Structure formats: structure tokens, C-alpha cells
Amino acid sequence: MRLSSKAAAPKPTKEHVLQSWRILPNGHFRGTLEDGLIVEFAGELLGPKDPGTVIGPGGIRYVLGKAKISDSKEDILEGMRQLTMRALAAAATATVAVIERLDFGLLQRWPANYFSGVSSTSVIKTETTIVETRRTLPDGSQACTVDKVTKKTRSIPGRAPTETSRKTRVEKILPRKPRARSTSLVP
């Protein structure tokens, strides 16, 4: 809905009376003409020079009759639907802003999770080192010590790599090997 800033409105040839009219949230006028036809249009109020008159598309003059007092069930549902869509759009925008602000990195990885044939963008590199040491104990038996170090590095684009390390040590005493007995007789 706009107020006309023109000094004098042009004299259109057609004029209709708009009954049960109201102004919609988008600024359009909706109402019923004398013949029962329901119309909706973007109009321009002429203001104090010609109160109650709206210039519609094509220069058609609409004289505002009685305003609509109560809304029908369809109008209420349409208004609720528009309000819900606006709320959902605002919530989605706010969610994206929060994710970007907190920098979870979800936006960088998101497409890889939903498109087939595309691998994840994070890379895990594993490096394992095994050191085995054998020694002879004072009683003559053999002992084996196995040290295993596993180092994992996870790289995600846009973030510093994270490293984890795990060390394990296993010590065991080896069974004695039976010595071969000599079959020769020594006098």
C-alpha cells in the first residue's frame, strides 16, 4: 500500500466499489466487487485529496466500501502458513549464522556427506613403530620385550592437525628350548 505523491491523480474511466476489503501483509488490497468477483491487487491510496479511493492496475479507481471485519478460515490458514514460512526462514538463517560463528567446520564437510561418489574431507594418517628387544636373564632364560607405538594424525581442512599417540609394552619370558642331548659317549 502506498500513498500517492502526485499532485493530481489522472481521471480514469472505470470506477468500482470494493466491499469486504482488507489490506494483506504484502501490502495488496483484497476485496469483493459488486458482481461478487474477488480481486487482489497492488494499489495506491490517493490520500486526503480523495479519501477512501485506491488506484489499481491500469488506472482503475476502487472506492473502498465496508472493510472486512472477520477473516474466513482459509484466510486465517493462509496467514498462518505465511507466518510459519517466515519463521522457518529466519530460524534457518540464524542456525547458519551460529554455525559460521562457532566455526564447527560443518559447512566445509557438509557436501561430502550427502553427495555420492565424494569422499570425506578429513584424512587420518597412521604410523606404527614396533621394537622387539631380547635379553638373557641371570638364570639363563630368555626375555622378550615388545614396544609398540601407534601415532595417528587427523587433518581437517581449515583446522590444525590433531595427533594422538598410544604406547604399549609387552614383556614375556620365552620358553626354554630343550638342548639336544648328545648321543656320543664320552669316557
Describe the structure in your own words.
The structure is a single chain. This protein is an alpha+beta fold. Helices cover 21% and strands 36% of the residues. It has helices spanning 73-102, 106-114, and strands spanning 2-3, 15-23, 29-32, 38-41, 44-45, 53-55, 61-64, 123-136, 142-155, 162-173. The strands form 2 sheets. It has a 7-stranded mixed sheet with strand order 1-5-6-7-2-3-4, with no helix packed on it. The protein has a 3-stranded antiparallel sheet with strand order 8-9-10, with no helix packed on it. The longest helix is centred in the middle third of the chain and has 30 residues, at 73-102. Residues 115-119 have low confidence and may be disordered.
Task: Going across the biggest sheet, name each strand in turn.
Answer: 1-5-6-7-2-3-4
The oligomeric state of the chains shown is: single chain
Radius of gyration: 42 Å
What is the average of the pLDDT values? 77
Helix content: 10-25%
- What ranges have pLDDT less than 50 throughout 5 or more consecutive residues? 115-119
The number of E-state strands comes to: 10
Summing up helix and strand content along with how strands pair, one would put the structural category as alpha+beta
Total count of helical runs of at least 4 residues: 2
Query: Any idea what the shape is?
Result: rod-shaped
H/E element order: EEEEEEEHHEEE
Please indicate the percent range of residues in DSSP E strands (runs of 2 or more). Answer: 35-45%
The biggest sheet, with number of strands, parallel, antiparallel or mixed sense and barrel status, is: 7 strands, mixed
Give the termini distance in whole angstroms.
128 Å
